Structure formats: C-alpha cells, structure tokens
C-alpha cells in the first residue's frame, strides 16, 4: 500500500532535494506538500514594494496579509508540480503560524495521519549550521517518523535510495524495537539490517547480541576526548556507507552508556553527521 508522505517545502534547494529523495524512497506515494508561512508573511523584496505602496500601517498590514498568502500558495504549488513530476499523487497544504515551522509541520503530519514527515536538512534561512532549525525542531518533537534528507547527495547515494537496504540502529531497547518495526512497515520490500554498537564498557560474556544484529565497534576510545554519541553515530554512519544503505533509521531513545544516548544524542549526531538520509522514529 502506498505511503502517505508529508514534505515540508519552502522552495529551497534542500526542500526540492527532499521531494526527489522522498519519491525515490516511497514511489507512488500520496504526498502533502506543506508550506508554512509566518510573520512577516512575505519575502523582503515583496515587503519593500508593499511599504512603498501603502499609505497607512493598517493598509500595509492588509497588503502583506494578502500578498503573503498569494506568495505562500505559489510556493506550495511549485512544490506540488515538482512532486507530480516525480510521480507522486500530490496536493498542497498551506498553513500560517506564529510559532515554530518545525512544530507546526509536526502537528500537521500527526493531524493528517502521515506515515512519515520528509524534510530537507536546511531551508532558505540556512546558516552555517549543519541542520536547520525546522528539521531540528521536528526531529525532537514529531510523533510521526521524520526523514531528514541531506543536500547534496552524491550520485551513488541517490542511486541507493531506490535499491539500498535500510540500516536500523539497534540496542535492544523498546525505542530500537519500534524503529525496526517502523522500518519494516515503511519499506516492506527492502532488506532491513540491524546494527548495534558495542560499548567499550560492555562485558562480552554478559552482553549477548541477537544473531541478526551486526555488532560494530567505535573506531576511537573515549579517552581521546571524542564524545561517545559522535563515536557511536560515526560507527553507524560508516556501516551504512559500507552497506550502501538507502536510509539510516534511529530510535528516539535507547538505554545505558552507549545505549542511553541512542534522542538521544546519537540520533541527533546521526542526523547532523550523516551524508545519507536519516529517519528518526519516536516511541
């Protein structure tokens, strides 16, 4: 059964890349292309023109509301056209907010019963941050799985979207179980590979990993000062690269030591550091 996908779209290159990647991962899906607009409701160039045209503050506010709504509809329509070109059954969703775009998108995805919320790593307001504020907020608070698509993807990484396995970070916690189950549900025709990262404090004799889990080790010991979450995320990312994975899936929380940071901080680190799409599943 085709997935119901919501894509946060603001017209940025990252948002366009998110649509293309999402279409490769979820072919023939029904897609809501969601554009959130907020104060001051219009682009800088448009606001400059409106300030010159308005005679009073009330008239300026009315013009900004009207033209901002039109601009928002135009942006969403462009996203729908791109999604339809990627063979999605797509329709626009335009909402106004006075708060966080990421929070509003998370609410919309839940209200419209989306199977997954797809976001680019950075939008039009991108700074030097690796991940933008919209994706960061959604990753932390969405109850719907959030797929963050980095931009740009290399040719081999994009090709893997249509055929690669799904790597799931696994630590035996309920969050990891939920992530694995969601991965199998969303990608029923893909190989799902469970990957666990061995804690250097683990007693090999006491810690028994399931037979179907690929057990990894961090490449650097903690005494070198490398944060545990980054080392764990890097081990998972490296494994996903070696398996030419389509997506790396992480649960929202894990348990104890390496497992305690799997949002966990490992999920955050994976989203920030991976060159392949990362899906965060909240349990």
Would you mind describing this structure in some detail?
The chain folds into two domains: 4-149, Rossmann fold, CATH 3.40.50; 155-281, 3-Layer(aba) Sandwich (Rossmann fold), CATH 3.40.50. The chain contains nine helices and ten strands. 42% of the residues lie in helices and 19% in strands. The protein starts with a strand and ends with a strand. The model is unreliable at 126-130 and 254-262 (pLDDT under 50). The chain has 283 residues and is of the alpha/beta class. The chain has helices at residues 13-25, 44-53, 57-85, 101-111, 133-141, 155-163, 174-186, 228-242, 265-273; strands spanning 4-8, 30-37, 89-96, 116-120, 146-149, 166-169, 192-198, 213-217, 247-251, 278-281. Helix 2 runs antiparallel to helix 3 and helix 8 (228-242) packs across helix 9. The chain is elongated, with a radius of gyration of 20 Å. The chain has a ten-stranded mixed β-sheet with strand order 3-2-1-4-5-10-9-6-7-8, with helices on both faces. Helix 5 links the parallel strand 4 and strand 5 (146-149). This is UspA domain-containing protein. Residues 4-150, 231-282 form the UspA domain. Pfam families: Usp. InterPro entries: Rossmann-like_a/b/a_fold, Universal_stress_UspA, UspA. Belongs to the universal stress protein A family.
